[in-house]
Amino acid sequence: MLRFFVRRFAGMIGILLVISLITFYLFFAASGPDDVVQMSCGRFCTEEAKAGVRHDLGLDKPFFEQYWVYMTGIVMGRDIGDRSCSAPCLGYSFSSREPVTERIQNGFPTTLSLAIGAIVLMILIGVGLGVIAAMKRGTRTDKVLTTVAVVAGAFQIFILGPLLLLIFVYETELMDLPKYYAFTDNPGKWATGLILPWICLMVIHMAMYTRLTRSAMVDALNDDYVRTLRAKGLSKRDIYIKHAFRGALSPVATILGIDIGILMAGTVITEFTFSLNGIGRLAVLAVEDSDLPMMMGVVLVAAAITIIANLLVDVAYAVIDPRVRLY
Amino acid sequence: MKSSDPLAKADSTAADAAPAGDKPRSSFLSVRDLHVRFTTLDGIVKAVDGLSFDLERGSTLGIVGESGSGKSVSSLAILGLHNPKKTVIGGEIHFDGVELTKASENEMNKLRGRRIAMIFQDALAALSPFYSVGEQIAETYRRHMGASRKEARQRAIDMLGRVGIPNPERRVDDYPHHFSGGMRQRAMIAIALACNPDLLIADEPTTALDVTVQSQILDLLGDLQSEFGTAIIFITHDLGVIAQTADDVLVMYAGRCVEKGTVREVLRDARHPYSWGLLSSVPDLGGDVDIPLRPVRGTPPSLLSPPPGCPFHPRCDYVARVGDDACKTSRPTLTLADGRGSACHLTADEKAEIFATEVRPLLR
Ligand SMILES: Nc1ncnc2c1ncn2[C@@H]1O[C@H](COP(=O)(O)OP(=O)(O)OP(=O)(O)O)[C@@H](O)[C@H]1O
Ligand code: SF4
Ligand SMILES: [Mg+2]
Question: Do A233 and B114 touch (CB under 8 A)?
Fold first, then answer.
């Protein structure tokens, strides 16, 4: 168990190193530094002025030295120019001059809240409908639920999102525009502020969970052990929920692992659609501005979240199925 | 009815039973003209085709027959576990005054696991991989005996001990994949016996086990039977096991009973060519190695379109002994005298003669 976590942690560091190196390299390969220097320097820029900017931003040092400085800064903090940047130091934004760590800290709760709320709804509703469909398989309820899930899954955020906004915000004025409130300040406002994007993400993703849960449960119901359960005289509820559903959880966890990655990638579109300020928006702005520190920060955080989420999914496998061992 | 002491079961079930006066002289379990047909894409499979037998409390019926003869399908029919959408069940199954083929799912669920229990053939597949062995025993006990979690857990430990699992207090929390094949089979038995059933259907419970474990399990079943008066249906390929455990034997072929009688009668004086084939295909390790093993030649008939006449005739050596090609045209019926009989056109004298001259010399 401990070995599992140590190994996975080491693996995570490795992956983050590779990702950061690639991002760093791509930035230089796409001649991002020149754009940055040009922008900071203004239109009438002498070569000397450019060199000055280059030096200030540390872009005159060799590639690996810059990378090294950047990476050690994350662990130990570093001084940049006359400012000191403490431990998880991700540098200063080239464009806004603000500390990247701080900006990510501001945007992160929004993105995380979006993802967590959407995942909880996706699982509750998607899996719940799947369980109902499996229990009523072959009936009209089953067909209606399966069809609804498939149709819902055909939507895209940029279609469904504006549609929801149009209906609930602009036409009926039942709701305000989505807005992020800190959960710790006011959980009620937190939930109502994000309910529209959550529903939007839930609707789009739930089809997979409904179909998967239904088919995995129906498969499980055909397993030999279910016959034993019936021979023991267990109630239908016990057979479906306690046993067959348990057998369906592993495939659900697999899809969840994949969906977390998809959600992270899709958060860009989600945040723009609902005018929220999370790290998805930061990512887009960073790319537009060739803002290397910002880009690096967002990429690393997003990668770390995805890796941690998948680690949790692997732990979930072991919890769900006692035959799976963590190693 | 509710009783915390499982040993008080014998009294409580007597109270459950229908008034004895209602059906005088009827057996504890009485199967009459049972038919089980599956609707498949290829057609209708007649897996069980007119099976009848009786079983009394405290006695054991052995069912033998080659693979596909309908042994498991018959057992599942007794428990009402066939999918009603794909299965047509005909005939009657009377269990202690209840007609099981007409019982509601609710009534059946009260009997299953409580009064009628089954040990399944393949214990690894038959146990859930997601719950501990103890929980799989305990959940039955909780459901039927209204026991608390703690009581049920204790019961699980007791049962594991009784079926011969060492360290039951520790093993109770293990999962099926931690158990060896033989231990899983015992766990399966522990589940089936958790509520001291009145009728136990054991579908090849010892096939996967080595001889030592096998005889321990057989002893255990025997003990339970004498303690609780359990009626047992013992399904097996192993005539040796039948000889050891059964009172009566039923030989199945292609979904029908072809011969029935006491163990002595069937094993020492069989009256059906198929039974002869079964008997002479048993290797006799202690006996004369010069006597060749004679497996039943040919393959089991199709259940989709069974051969006309006697279903055994394509494989039978004695078709010519019966006049008018009757074997190929008319189906022999099972006529019983004192519970003894065989479904074959040969006359009683011919059967006795053939057994004495051709079959007995092959047996030990
Ligand atoms: N659900 C089903 N649908 C269609 N055919 C079935 C079904 N279940 C069983 N059968 C068929 O019924 C026949 C009898 O099967 P059964 O399992 O009772 O055999 P068995 O006597 O228990 O054999 P074995 O000794 O191998 O366990 C077989 O030919 C089998 O293919
Ligand atoms: S009826 Fe004919 S074919 Fe069938 S077992 Fe008897 S002799 Fe053989
Ligand atoms: Mg079988």
Answer: yes
